[in-house]
Amino acid sequence: MATATPSELHPVGAFVPLPFRVAERRQDTGDTWTLTLEPEESGFAVEPGQFAMVHVFGVGEVPISVSGPPERPGDPIVLTVRAVGAVSGAICASELGALLGLRGPCGNSWPIAEATAGDVVVVAGGIGLAPLRPVVLHTLAQRDSYGAVSVLYGARTPADLLYTDQLEEWRSTIAVDVTVDAAEPPWKGKVGVVPKLVATAEFRPEAVTAFVCGPEVMMHFTVQALRERGVPDERIMLSLERDMRCGIGLCGHCQLGPTLVCRDGPVYSQADVGALLGVREL
Amino acid sequence: MPQQLDEVLAQIPFFDGMAEDEIALIAGCGRNVHFDEGATIFRQGDAADDFYVIRHGTVAVGNFVPPRGELVIETLEAGDLLGWSWLFPPYRTHFDARALSPVRATQFDGKCLRDKCAADPALGFDLMSRFAQVLIERLQWTRLRLFDLYGNGHSV
Fold first, then answer.
1. Chain A (110-149) residues lying within 8 Å, Cβ to Cβ, of chain B
2. Is position B13 within any domain?
3. B118 lies in a domain?
């Protein structure tokens, strides 16, 4: 029996970081930046939901969800990064023209094609909107291919909301419902948790696909709310976050029972991982 | 032709599955009201004589906290209940409620309902069970926020 070599199993760019330069940078919130990176030589295409291992030379490497995926190798890639540690902080601090290394694309993707002709509800919490942004952009670009499309988005405070200008643009085409956990004047929007928005979102439970990303507890309550609306577990898609190191299913750090999140995920259906998420030891 | 109040209530999720005669009893304590955007529905410390079922619009529940101003604890939408201080002594509201948009609601006389519940324990149990479900849900949502889920929980 022939055995595949590592280079056959993994595309170019999976092992060796490819050089990308920071072409644009924008501060979204106090600790979150969106960077547009252009490949120096060859890049790689990315499907919505996949992530890249981002290498800051001399500092380290972290997995970052792609918020603006390149359709073809050579296209720029957009990353939204929250500065929470040494590496992510260094990524956010990268000046225009700085060189970063990217390995990828890593992981699987959101099943957007399977949702065609049905309704779509996107439920995002905090930085979880970043990996879901490609789903929203896809449904906007292919608006006629989908029924009702809703974005339900929750953040800590109004100052922590991502893509505020884009949320307003999206509102002209799809339903966008935003809430925050805490607010002070002059905020006039909703205050409360994002799972609560599920109850009044416009979608047909029998024809909707839910795309959910955020802190795991937030996803747990969102799943409960979706189930109460009658959405089956098979059509509740979750993007999981685990301790990803290699990004290509070799090191085992991101193991969740029988699955490696960096290789088999990060996108799973609730039917596939719901029981695993309830196991504290995993 | 305008709908009777009991017909309106039958369409509100809070009253799902409630017997028609019970809805009719409750409707006898209610009336439809309207609040303009920015209107104060009640203030902290007011007599809690009433509660509301919001049928349209958004209501902010909060408090004035010097020097930060008016802090909103939660916003309530169509289908939500507003006010439960009418249930127990001393029947005083604990928070402010303000209309963030034009609001249509059904206002219920708390004393009227308490009297009917006392006279009809089956109605009382049904109504209190429904209120308990709302209270538990609000408590769960509040607990979820106490986790500060979007805080800095990572380090890489």
1. 125-127
2. yes
3. yes
